[in-house]
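Work Package 3 (structural annotation) set out to generate three-dimensional models for the target panel prioritized at the project kickoff. During this period the team completed the workflow that converts sequence records into discrete structure tokens, so that structures can be stored uniformly alongside our sequence database. As a representative example, we reproduce one entry of 79 residues exactly as it appears in the project archive.
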Amino acid sequence: MSEDRVLHSFKKTATEEVRAIVREYKGRLYFDLRVYYMNNEGEWKPTRKGIALSSDFLPEIKQCLEKFETEIKQKEEQT
């Protein structure tokens, strides 16, 4: 199994961040979008809050994000 690769991360709160990770498991690539928290020792640890999907779902993920972006832009234009 290869090492996880963090593609992007951003702060959610002072003690939480969201990470987009690519990982390989049993010869397949997965996209993992997960919330991490900082423990008392100052280490980042994953939570159960997240989703991991096979790279087979990449076209659907892209389509979903495009629809989400369009919807948000439309709502912003209405305000």
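Residues 72 and 78 are 10 Å apart (CA to CA).
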